[in-house]
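Side project, low priority. Logging it here so it doesn't get lost.
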Amino acid sequence: MVIAMVASCTDTRAPDDPFAPGVDPDGPVIDEIAVGNRLMAAGEYELAMESFTRAALTEGMTPQILTSLGTANLGLRRIGQAEPLLRRAVEDDPDWPVAWNNLGVFLMETGEYAEASQVFRRAFALDNGESDAIRDNLRLALAKMENPVNNTPKEQEFKLEQRGNGQFVLRKNPATEAEQ
């Protein structure tokens, strides 16, 4: 009986097992989009893209995933890869204000202020004016469009800031503000 008690207290795993534990197919499902959004908020755009890609494998290329991938590419300054993803997202779901907002952020980054203001107006209308992030982005686009003389390269350095639910707003880069 003592031997049975001692045997039940011992660890059956091999010490220093180099392999990770196996995958539990009945375990909890991870929301890859939520993980990707958290990574985006932390500035880990490459890891966020991997998370969004895993989400695309299970959910398909939904407008939300297209927008997320496009915004992650924008964060990595991959302008050529971001644009088609963001434009496809607004084509696939033309009534989703987040996709329009993120396309507008892309257009602001590329200096297309007139088109960006139109895109932000559409996002603002679709959102019924409820989003502060879209309103702020629209104001910035209109200011840049109305006063192109004041658009120095230093003032055009922006940082993506997440406002929730995959929606982003442009903020001046803190390093740029310190230089001014």
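Brief comment: The chain has one domain: 31-179.
Revisit when time allows.
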